[in-house]
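dumping this here before i forget
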Amino acid sequence: MSDTLVHNDFEEFEETGPQGQDGPEGRSVPAAPPAAGLVPFMDALRIPPRLRPDKAEALEGVTVDLRATWVRLHSQLPPSRVWAYQGNFPGPTIEVRRKQRLRVAWTNRLSGAYPVTAYEVPIAGPPASNVPGHDEAGAEEVKGVAELPPWSVTHLHGAPTGAANDGWAQNAVSPGDAQLSEYPNDCRATALWYHDHAMHITRWNVFTGLAGMYLIRDEEEEALRLPRDEYEVPLVLMDRNLDKDPDGRLTGRLLHKVQSVGKDAEGRNVTIPFNGPYTLVNGVIWPHFDVEARWYRFRVVNASNARFYRLALIDEETGQQVTGAVKQIGTDGGLLDRPVDLDAPVSIAPSERLDLLIDFSRLRGRTLRLVNTPDGKNPGEADEAGGVPYPQVMQFRVDGEPVRDRFVLPKVLSSFQRITHANAPAHGHRIIALTPPGTVGGNGHPEIWELRQVAEADVTIPGDGVIQVRNEMGETTTYQRISRTFDDAMGISVELDSWEQWSFLNLGGPTHPMHIHLISFQAMSRQAYAAGGFDPAVGGTGKDAPVAYSGELEVLPSERGWKDTIQVPGGQMVNVIGRFTGATGRFMYHCHILEHEDMAMMRPFLVTPGQVLAFDHHRPGDGHHGVA
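structure:
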C-alpha cells in the first residue's frame, strides 16, 4: 500500500497493559491532577494514518484488524485501554476513488477484558455523565457489561453497498473470524465513516474506540484543487468520561455513565443517553493544532454516542466568533453547489459530517478555539445545566509568517441540484412517527412507529397506535401503527430504483438524528406540528385533537446537500427524499443516538426488484406504494 500504517505508542502493552504509573519503555507518565480536571490544549492533534490501496490491492482485498491497544488520551493521564482498527484510535482514514471496488476483511483479533466500565446513577441535578468517576450515591454497575465478549460488526456509514456487505447488526463476528465486505464506492466524492454496529451493544462497542473515516474521491472534486495531503485533515469528534481511583485521580479507564429516570416493565433502568465531559478530537482530549497561514480543509464527523455539537471558531484575543474565514463546502453525501459562510455556530448531530474550509491567512499569528456552545448562548459559553460543562473542543495556533497559497475559493463547487416539492421525481410516501419517552407500551423509551393510512371508521379514537395528522391544507388523515420494535414484521418494502419521500414526525421529546442505510437523501422541507395532540398515556391522538400543522420552518443552508442523517426535533415533521438504488436486500434505519438505537429505535426495510415485489403477498406497510 502507498501509505504505511503507524500504530499507537502503547501497542506493545496490548495484553497486560502498563504497570502502575510507568508507560512503555519505562517512560514516566505525568500524574493526573489531584482533582478530575485536565489542562486543555496541552497535546498536539494526532492525524490518523491513511490507508490508500491501489487498484490491484483493492481488488485483492485488504485486511483491517480489530484489536485491543493502549493510547494516551491526554498527557496528564495514564494510558487508556481501547479497541481500535489497526491498533489506531481512531482507525486509519481509508481513501479510494469513485467506482474503485474495495474488498475489506474486518478481522476480529480483539482479546482481553472489555475496556469500558458502565454505570447507571439516579437522576439528580446536572447530568451525572458529565462528572468523572462513579462514586455518586445510588450508582449501580450495569450487570453483564464487564463480561461482554469481543463481538463486533463494522458498518460503512453512508455507503451504497449490498445488504450482505452493509454490516447488519446481528451478523457480528467473534475473535478469530473475519467479516468480509465489498464496497463498490459508486457514489460522488464524499466523507463516509466506519464504526461498530453490533446488535444491542453498539453504544459500548463504539465507545471502546471502534470508528474511523473513509474518503471517496472523484474527478469533479479534484478539479477544484482543494487543499490536500497535510492540508486536508480529518477531525473525528467524540466525547468520553473517565473513571477515578479512590484518591480522586483519573485512571484513564473509559467510563460509560448515564442517568436513570426510572424502571421499565421488566425492572430495568430507563436511562438518558450518554454525554461526557471530555471532548476528544482524533483520540486526544482538547488538542492543539499548529497551522500555516493558508487554506485548510477539515473533514469533520461527529462520532459521539449522543452529544450534539454547536461548533463555533473563537478568536482568543477578542473572544468573538471568527467571521469570513470558515466556509462549508459539503455535507454527509458530498459537495454542495456553492460554499456556505459559517459566521454563526453550526450544529452537527451524531454521525453527521461537515466538509469545511478555513482561511487561516486572514488570521496570521492568532490563537483560535473551536468550541461547543449551547443553543441560545454566546459562543464558547459553558452551560453546566445544559450538559456542556467544558465548551472547548480544540485550539488552532496560526503561524505568523505569510505563505504563498495558490488555492482560490471557487464560486461553484459541484453539479449538485437541490430537490424540492416542486421538482421532485415521481415518488411514494412513508410516514414514520417518533414517540416521546413514557408512551404506553414503550417501556419508557422513545420508539419508531411505522404507520399506514386507514379509514377513521375502521379504528377506535382515541386508541393505542392511532394517530390523526392535520396537514397544511387542513386535511386530516388517520394512521395506524404497524410496527414499533426491531423484531416486528417487515413494514417497508421498497422497489429497487424507486424514489420515496419519508416523513419523520417527532411527537415530542429529544431531537433524533435519523439515519437511513444504503441511500443519500435530501431534506425537502421542515414543518412545525403541534405535538400536544398526541397523548403518551393513550398512545395516540384524541378525537378532534389531531397532531396539527402549524407552519413552515427553514431547511438551513448547511443541511441542503445530500445527507444520510437528518436532525428531527420534537414538534417537527422533516420530509426527506431519496432514490433506493445500487443494491437490494435487507437494510436498517434508526436514530443515531446509540443509546436509542440499542433500545428499540431501529427498524429493518427491504429493497427488492419491482418484478419480484409484485409477488409479495404480505405488505404490512402497503409495500412500495406507502401511504400518501
